[in-house]
Amino acid sequence: MPGPTHRSALVALGLALSGAVTLSAQSPAGDDVVKLDAFNVTAYHGKIPIIDGFTGKDYEGTNEVVFSFAQSFNKLLLGYHRKLVIDESKHLQFRIKLGKDFDREMAQFNAAFGFGPFTLDESTWLRRERAIISRLIKEPFFKIKSLVVWDLDRLNKIAPNKPESKYASDIRFNPETTAWERRITDRWEVFFFNNPSSRNGSFATDKTQGLNLDTLRGFHFIERGLPVQVPSHAFKEVSLTYPIFYSDDRTGEKELTRLQQTLVANLYFIYDPFSWMARRDTRFRGGFSQDCRDHIKAQRIYVDDREWFDQVFSRFLSDVITSKLQGADEIYSLHMLSKRLSESPRVLGLGLDLLNWNKGEKREAINQPEAAALISAENPAGFRYVMIDAYQRLGEPLIEKIRVRLLAQKDARRAINGQAMLTQIIEELSGLPYPEFAQRAKASQEAHLARHKRELPIPPPPTTLNPSKD
Length: 470
What we know:
Largest sheet: 6 strands, antiparallel
Order of helices and strands: HEEEHHEHEEEEEHHHHEHHHHE
Oligomer: single chain
């Protein structure tokens, strides 16, 4: 999550990007996902309606911060929208290049080991992302239909009670912090016919999410994931309101900047259409391990424990290539990130908050504390890290030794036990009994993983009961 300084920079960049940057989608066959061209988004223009939360009618107050924030609202939305497209296109282009580099490195391994040619199937690469970018270029997913403003001084007088208003479902008084909090909840729908001409067969799914706009904790639930062939027109518009608190005791540029920074921080979590698959920090990572495994399974290798060996050896080759192209930290950070997602898959933002603020809201989800990463060298997943450690200590001679041994068994047409072969090679090169080496590898690799344990940033403080003056 961006810190305060970074959020300030995003605000400035957002206002700047609301100007002349232009983009368009490329055809799926091209390497460049997005190029400079006609960016036709016109949704964020004109005055955004300002609604008084208490009355449900147009705001008739005189708070200058409210008007100044509303005036900058559309510019920030458009700036963030454009930045989302630009950043995502750069990320996808990076991943395309990485895929081609991986393909090249794996081809060299295959030639050395006498395996058949290896080629990654690029036909399905980034299909969903291209559809999402195409939609973003034409029109946004989010339409903010109004800014709902709440007089904090009036709220404080009735706390902990809520006002009688249809907009009050999105605010609450937290007795533990003696502060008022705001939220957004929304539902993203996707629908399309598989064969538009015949109208036979359709696909539908939805994503519900919510975020506490003050603590930056929230939830998301995806009914089912997107198919590869999802078209850009399948994404339905998401229309919502955005609530803010204002007070006569909080005025001036400092308060305006705080509201703008908070909006950008909120958008970072709630307006991410690519999270239909996963956030940018998880997608396309992992070194194409499944492609490698499928390829190794198809090769004639003279070992008698193919299921174990194929899993370990293919992952080893993938890890070696990843280490060369991106560094070993890519392996450790992805492992820890994937572990966190499996422990608490419904988290959105800085932590899980199911936002059950009103009668009838009974969302449930697992939220487990992050456990330490422990490695067991006895199973294939743990042996993976023994092999990583061995490569880090022993280098290319490890790969060469495995290559020579496998080619010798191929010439002799005699199968050996793959696990026994790898442990023996490690013993020969390290000069240590395998159990001792494995124990050292376990300690070393667990320490590397621990460096990537999550440290949650501290969210900005919510709007307090007794706001201080500037």
